[in-house]
Specification:
Layout lengths: L6 E2 L10 E2 L6 H9 L4 H7 L5 H17 L5
Antiparallel strand pairs: 1-2
Helix pairs in contact: 1-3
Length: 73
């Protein structure tokens, strides 16, 4: 899967933050939910317009970002 098929960055939507295409659901919201321990089913229940592929795309997007930058502690 290519995350670019499911994620868009548009200055007119959510202040230009990465969102799932066709929604205003930010990638960061999905990742925050995963980090908080919610499983896929819980996230999909909370955001009915999401698909499983959207969650995987968010993880793939974050993975690519992590390879590109170093965050100092």
């Amino acid at each position: 899967m290519d995350w670019r098929d499911r994620i868009v960055v548009d200055p007119a939507i959510a202040h230009g933050r990465a969102c799932i295409k066709g929604t205003r659901i930010m990638v960061s919201v999905i990742l925050d939910n995963l980090a908080a321990g919610l499983d896929e089913a819980e996230i999909l229940k909370s955001y009915p317009t999401l698909k499983s592929e959207d969650i995987r795309a968010a993880i793939s997007y974050a993975s690519e970002l992590a390879r590109e930058r170093i965050v100092s502690s």
